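Reopening this ticket.

The earlier resolution said the output was attached, but the attachment link was broken on my side. Pasting everything inline this time so it's all in one place.
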Amino acid sequence: MITRRLLCVAALVAASGVGAADDVPGVAPPKSWDHFVILPWQFKTDASRDKALYESINLHGLHIDRQNAALQAFARETNWPYYVDHGAGKGYLHLGAAAAGISRKNSILVRPNSLADPRTMEAMKKLLRTNIEAAKGSSVVGYSFDDEISTGSFCSPIETDGSPASVADYRKFLAQRYSTIGALNSEYGSSFTSFEEVSPQSYEAFRTQLAPSTLGKLNLSPWCDWRSFMDTQMASTLAELTRFSNSLDPATPAGFVGGQGPNAFGGYDYHKLAESVQWMEAYDIGGSNEILRSFWSQKRPHVQTYFSSKNPRQDSWFLWYYLCHGNRGVIAWPDGWFTNGKVADYIQACAETYKEVQGPVSKKIIDGDFVHDPVAIYYSHPSIQVTWAMDAATHRGTWPNRSSSMDNSISTSNLTRVAWLKTLEDIGIQATFIHQDHLLGGALLQGGTKVLLLSRVLCLSDAEAAAIRAFAAKGGAVLADTLCGVFDEHGKAREKGALDDLFGVTHDLARGILGGATLTEVDGERGGSLSDKNWAVEGASTAWDMPVFERGLSAAGTAKAEHEAATGAALVRHGKNVYLNLSPVGYLLKRPKQEGRPWSAGVASLLQELGVTPRLLISENGQPAAQIEAITWKNPDRLTLCILRNLDRKATIDSFGSAEGKLGDGKLRLKLSFAQPVNDLKNERSGKSLGDGREFEDELTPWEANVYTYRP
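Inline output:
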C-alpha cells in the first residue's frame, strides 16, 4: 500500500532531485503572538504558582509539555501566550535513549520507530490529536511536534534508516530521480538491472576514495543520494504532521523546536524543512537564522533558544540582537531563575529589557519585510553533504565519533557561510539566501539582484548552471569562493567545473587544496572548535590576507588573475564574474581581534565595482564603526532601522554559547550617513525626532539596540 507519507516523498522529488514541490501552506501567527514573546520552559518553575515572580520581571508567557490542565486553565484565564512542546510525544522524532544503540557505528542501521513505518505516524497523530484538542481555542501560539528532532541523534553521523520499509521507499525515490536504471548506473558507475537491486551505502563505503589528490575523481553519488533521501523522509514526515495538525486547529502554526544547523545528517536540509513546517525554534548554527529569515520572509515565525549568560548586559544584547534579526520570540530555559520564592539577581537585572523587547517596538520589526541589498547567497545542500565528507576524512575509520557538537563548531560549510555573512554585515551589506526553487524559477531575473554569491557551492546540476549563466547574460555578476561546481548535483566529480567557462578558470584538482596535505580547512583531529591550532592552512599562499584554496586553479582564455603563485591563482576576473579561490573562514578568527581588514576591504571594493554599496555608513566615536550592524525592515507606512553591535554568536544546544567580540563599557557616539536622504527619522526607543536629511548623530548603548523609523 502506498501511504500518504510516500506520496509526499514522491512530491518532494523534483526533476533535479533536490527541491520540494509540495510546500505546506503557512498559517498566520495568532493574535496572542502579535509581538516578540519570551516563553519560559516550565523547568523548576510553574507559571501559575510563580505568576507574581514572572510579572515582577515582565514575563507573561510559558510553555506546556504535551498537555497540562492546570497550566492550560491558567493560560485561558490570563491569555498568556504559550506553545505546546512534544505534541507528537517523545521517542519518535527525537529518539532519546534509543539513539545510544545506533550511535558510533559505520554501517547502515535500522532506526528505532522508523519514520517509514505507518505505525510510527499513527502513534504520533494519536498523541497530536489529544494534545491539540486540549489546547486549541486558547492563547496557544504554536504546536511543536518534538524537540531536537533527528533521523538519528542530533546531527551526529548515524546512517539510518535501513529498515525494509525505508529501503523500499528509497528505491522508489531513486526511480523518481533517475527515471531509468541506466541513468542511475551511468551516475554511479554500477551495473544494476533494476532499482530493486540498489541498497543504501554508508560513508564508510566511500571514505577511502577521499585523499588530497583524488578530489577530481570522487564519486559520492550513492551516498549523497542516500543522505538526500533521508532528508526527504524527515521533511515529508513533518509535512504530513503539519497538515494533520492544521486539520485539527487551522488557526495555529505547527512545527518543531531545537532545530540543528544545516548538515548532511539528521534530516537538516533547510530547503526541505522550510517547506514542511510553519514555525521553528532553531539554534543559530551555521547561519540558520538568516536562512529561515530569507526562505520564510517573516510569514512563518522563527524563534531562538535563550539560556541566560548570567551577565545582564550580554543577555540584553542577545535579546535585542535576535529581535532585530527578525525572530518572533525566544524560548527561555529558566534553570536557576526562581529559587525559594525569589528571582535570581542576574535575571531581575533584565526586567526592563524583557519589558521593552516584548513591547510595541517589536511590532515595528517582526511583521516587516526584510530589506536586503541586491546580493543573493546560494544555498546548496548537496554541497553541504560533500563538504561533510571532506571534513570527516581526517578522522579515517573513527568518523562515526564526529559528534554533532563538533560539527556545529567546525563544519567548513557552516563556517564559510557565517564568515560571508559577517564579512558582508561588517561592510554594511545585507544579503538574502536563495535555494534551487528560487534559482530555477527565475527569481534572480526578477528581483533586482546584482550579485550572486556562490559560497562553497561545490555541487551544481546542469539546470542550475544554466540558470546562473542566464543571470550573468542579463548583466548579473557571479562571485564564487572555492571548488565551485566541480561536482554534479549528486556529488560526482565533473571532468570540468559546471561554470568554468563563465569564470574563465581551469582546475587541476590532483594538486589538492591549501597546503596540499589536507581535505578540510578546519581539522577536527586537532581540536573541536575553530582556532589557530586547527585552521589547517599551512603551506597555502595568501591574497587579501586569506588562504588561496585550490592549488591547481589557473586563469584561462581572456580571464585575468590578480594573484598568481605556485600554489594557485586567485581573484580571477572574467568580465563581471570573479572566481576568488579564497576561503573566508579565517575572518572568523581575525575579526574578534579587529583584524582581517584586507579581506573585508577587498570584498567591499569588489562589490562597489559591481554596483553594490552600503545604504548607510556608521561611525563610532569618530571612527568607522567596527562590528556594528544596520538592519532594515519595511512596514506599510515607514521603514524600521535597527542599529546594534554585531558580535559573532556561537550557539550551543545546552547553554548560552559564546558571543565573540567586545560589547564595550559605555555609550557610543554614532554618526549615521545615509546614501539617500530620509524623512522624519525618529528613535522609537528614546522618542527623539532627528528630522530630515542624510547625516544624523545619536548615542548607542552597545548591549542594546537603537530602533529608528523613517520615511524614504
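Reporter confirms the inline version is readable. The CA atoms of residues 375 and 431 lie 5 Å apart. The chain has 22 helices and 31 strands.
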